[in-house]
Amino acid sequence: MAQEKTYIEDIERTLYDIKNVDKSKYKSQSGLTEDIIRDISARKNDPEWMLEFRLKSLEVYNQLSLPNWGPDLSELNMDEIVTYVQPDAKMTGSWDEVPEDIKDTFDRLGIPEAEQTSLAGVGAQYDSEVVYHSIQEDLVKQGVIYTDMETALHEHEEIVRDHFMKLVPPKDHKFAALHGAVWSGGSFVYVPEGVHVEIPLQSYFRLNAAGAGQFEHTLIIVEKNASLHFIEGCSAPKYNVTNLHAGCVELFVNDGARLRYSTIENWSRNMMNLNTKRAVVGKDGVIEWVSGSFGSHVSMLYPCSVLKGENAKCEFTGVTFASKGQNLDTGASVIHCAPHTSANISTRTISKAGGKATYRSAVKVTKNAPYAKCSVNCESLMLDDISRSDTLPTMDIEGDEADIGHEATIGRISDEAIFYLMSRGISEDEARSMIVRGFVEPIAKELPLEYAVEMNNLVNIELEGTMG
Amino acid sequence: MLELKDLTYQVEENNETLTIIDHLDLTIDDGKFIVITGPNGGGKSTLAKLIMGVKELTSGQMIFDGEDITECSITDRARKGISFAFQQPVHFKGIKVLDLLRLATGKNISVNTACEYLSKVGLCAKEYIDREVNSSLSGGELKRIEIATVLARGTKFSIFDEPEAGIDIWSFQNLIQVFENIRKTVKGTVLIISHQERILNIADEIIVIENGKVKKHGPKDEILPELLGTADAVNRACSKMS
């Protein structure tokens, strides 16, 4: 009889750890000074207002302190971080024009293949600049814009100016300010009123240079009654110096619109991932976050949904897997600002081999949001005695007639469950992996499996043989 | 055939060594329908778990079909043909009744085949096959599903640990019918831990375990009257006291 054989091991990183020789065309000096900011801005040919914005952000950065909560960030020394690495490649719409080594990297990650089979558009960023962007012609004809942020800044300057860092102002926190000062690359999406982008768009961010930072900015505007599924992927090879990711995602979901934003984050274990994501949702609009956090040394990531219009909705689905040497502090926040707004947050965290996973959530219901509904469900699983899992929910309810629920469980795999599966002829390792798979199943099924090639490597499910 | 030789199982509790199974010897022949009974705390369930490998022996030897399985893991014993019905099937999120049955057989069995196993335990299969295994199912339903999974395994040696525990009288009536059916149809050895007269009544052999030892072992016709006699005597004594 053929036996199903499954394992859940550490995330297989070989694919991501292939390093290219650093052929960057230009690298800024390490550290953060006004001269460096001016230099980046000049090289990017920023409009004057953007240079001013960067310099103001730098001022804010210098005024703000590191957060006094969450993971220890003392390992991060900004004086050692190179904030701008320009690859030796120009943005193009043809993979043939992308330099061989960079193209090979994205080939290995399966991006061109996914573009052929299941995506309506692709953006590929390498270090600080986007090197490839494409979108299907029929979407262009419908007025959909999908391009890199630099192009958007020049070709759609007014839209960018009206929205750029309006949802996440530099004063929000120190790393938002850092982002405002040194941002580079990222994707811009505009979906006109009533247009439904049926097939997802995907942007992939690859950081190759050691000791560098990546600060891409993603700005998505989904106009009234339009819809979009956007997928973001990211990875980097491992170095023995600290890399930094401080991206920023701003999502504008207008009345009656729907946006699904899926992320599969698999940074290397030397990465500080201090990312900020926020969405504002209009009347009857829906934001759906699907978030998989698997990589990085330290992560702080709490996508925020501002439910601004009546009946606006948020669905947040997240999975975090912290293994050896990882401290992943993830969660979600929701701000109910209008009547009858609703949110549903569902997360799973797994910790093993001494990893630390923290779920942190904040739910705020303002006075203007009567009849708000919010349900939070977070479940944690520790696979051994040396790992740690914490759940830190906060709720601030001012609105009347609110219906708020919070459910949290933290557990270990029970011996009885293992024995049960073994008594069915399954080995102990296989039994553990089945339980973990069952645990993440409700979340895993939401992840865009068919598009994100690395998903197979994330919770490494190795199937040998077949059932039956 | 299962041979248990000089089995001992001890636990440490409050710095004291408690002997739960005490130098127990027992041979169980193939194809028999055997019920193990005895007073609570006598070591019945422990013995069942030792056979499956869920608990580890302190000393002794187990031979199954001529092979020493003393050091075998639960998985190995399962693969050699021993099955164990837990008090309830394992619950994990998302698992459905059909999944449990497929897990038990180790095959991607068809819905129709799975339904046949459910029918054998008196469940209307179509209603259950796609249901998630969780607290929406009653204790009696869960128990019967668990029994169905052991039937689905179709192994040489099946152990049922107090199948009647924790279910209501109505479910119990159904359960007895299930075991009466198993009695008629299953070819391998069936070992049931039970206190129930109606289950004892369908046994080929009855084994009485007390203080970690085999107190009695013999054909039902020989052992059952003795047991009932004892119960009658207790009942009579109690009625006099009242």
What does it look like?
The complex is a heterodimer of chains A (468) and B (242). Chain A has one domain (8-461). Helices cover 21% and strands 36% of the residues of chain A. Chain A has helices at residues 34-43, 48-63, 100-108, 111-118, 137-141, 149-155, 157-163, 174-182, 415-422, 428-444, 455-458, and strands at residues 8-9, 26-27, 85-86, 121-126, 129-135, 145-148, 187-191, 201-206, 213-214, 217-222, 227-235, 243-245, 248-253, 258-266, 271-274, 276-281, 286-293, 298-301, 304-307, 313-322, 327-336, 342-351, 356-365, 373-382, 388-397, 403-412, 460-461. In chain A, strands 6, 7, 9, 10, 12, 13, 15, 16, 18, 19, 21, 23 and 25 form a 13-stranded mixed β-sheet that branches. In chain A, strands 5-4-8-11-14-17-20-22-24-26 form a 10-stranded mixed β-sheet. In chain A, strands 1-27 form a two-stranded antiparallel ribbon. In chain A, a hairpin with a 2-residue loop joins strand 4 (121-126) and strand 5. In chain A, helix 9 (415-422) packs across helix 10. Chain A starts with 7 loop residues before the first strand and ends in a 7-residue tail after the last strand. By secondary structure, chain B is of the alpha/beta class. Chain B has a single domain (2-236), classed as P-loop containing nucleotide triphosphate hydrolases (Rossmann fold, 3-Layer(aba) Sandwich), CATH 3.40.50. Helices cover 40% and strands 27% of the residues of chain B. Chain B has helices spanning 44-52, 74-80, 97-105, 111-120, 125-128, 139-153, 169-185, 197-200, 220-241; strands spanning 2-13, 16-28, 33-37, 59-64, 67-68, 82-85, 157-161, 189-193, 205-210, 213-219. In chain B, the strands form 2 sheets. In chain B, strands 6-7-8-3-9-10 form a 6-stranded mixed β-sheet, sandwiched between helices. In chain B, strands 2-1-4-5 form a 4-stranded antiparallel β-sheet. In chain B, a hairpin with a 2-residue loop joins strand 4 and strand 5 (67-68). In chain B, helix 4 packs across helix 6 (139-153) and helix 6 (139-153) runs parallel beside helix 7 (169-185). The N and C termini of chain B lie far apart (47 Å). At the A-B interface, helix 9 and helix 10 of A face helix 2 and helix 3 of B.
